[in-house]
Amino acid sequence: MMRTEIRSKYSRKKNVEELFIRAAKQEEDGKLRSAFRLYLAAAKAGDTSCQLNVGNFYDAGTGVRRNRSAALYWYKRAYRRGVSCAASNIGVMWRNEKKPKRALEWFEKAVRSGDEEANLEIAKHYVWNEPNTAKAIHHLEKVCQSNCVTEAGKEEATKLLKQLSRRGGGRYG
What we know:
By secondary structure, this protein is an all-alpha fold. The protein has helices spanning 3-28, 32-44, 48-60, 68-80, 84-96, 100-112, 118-128, 133-145, 151-168. It is 77% helix and 0% strand.
């Protein structure tokens, strides 16, 4: 690789980082339309965090008209580039659209790609949609044992484990 190519890649990366910082500041200041435009520019340049953010903006209709297909496009683009939580976001979209099987597929993809907290969503599926207490407990235990989940996720998994064990007389009650 030639020096000019290295400099060019470095300057593009620096420019994308600057776009992200400016977008985050705009979002923090409540200037959501401006934040969206900056995130979109960085997403188009290949920044995976911005691709996820653009998906979130389209999904929620933040700073832009809600657009389900655009949200899916950006979530899938981020997922293909290694952002596991993008698969969880797609799973949530399918779950909200009352398509539990499709949601489950995406939550499983999220887990396979490293999003251990998606086990909580899989467990919920086995509690509410396809009752299977053993599978639900298995996934809840994974959440509780993980060091890579949020405190809120761990608390919710623990609470659900206790509820399931009260029903079945298990060890968590």
